[in-house]
Amino acid sequence: MLTAPTIVMKFGGTSVADAERIKRAAHRIVAQREQGKRVVAVLSARGHTTDELIRAAEEVSPSPDPREMDMLLSTGERISCALCAMAINDLGHKAISLTGSQAGIVTDTSHTRARILDVRGDRIVEALESDMIVLVAGFQGVSTSRDVTTLGRGGSDTTAVAVAAALHAEVCEIYTDVSGVFSADPRLVPNARKLPFVSFEEMLEMASSGAKVLQLRAVEYARTHGVRIHCRSSFEDGPGTFVIGEDETMEHPLITAVTHSTEEARITLVGVPDRPGAAAEIFEALAAAGCNLDTIIQNEPRTEGVHAEVSFTLASDDLRSAEAALLPVIADQGLKVETDRRIGKVSIVGAGMKSHPGVSAKVFRTLADEGINLEMISTSPIKISCVIRADAVPRAVEALHTAFGLGDSDVHEELPLGQESR
Amino acid sequence: MLTAPTIVMKFGGTSVADAERIKRAAHRIVAQREQGKRVVAVLSARGHTTDELIRAAEEVSPSPDPREMDMLLSTGERISCALCAMAINDLGHKAISLTGSQAGIVTDTSHTRARILDVRGDRIVEALESDMIVLVAGFQGVSTSRDVTTLGRGGSDTTAVAVAAALHAEVCEIYTDVSGVFSADPRLVPNARKLPFVSFEEMLEMASSGAKVLQLRAVEYARTHGVRIHCRSSFEDGPGTFVIGEDETMEHPLITAVTHSTEEARITLVGVPDRPGAAAEIFEALAAAGCNLDTIIQNEPRTEGVHAEVSFTLASDDLRSAEAALLPVIADQGLKVETDRRIGKVSIVGAGMKSHPGVSAKVFRTLADEGINLEMISTSPIKISCVIRADAVPRAVEALHTAFGLGDSDVHEELPLGQESR
Question: Which residue of A103, A129, B190, B356 is surrounded by the most CB atoms within 10 Å?
Answer without folding.
Answer: A103
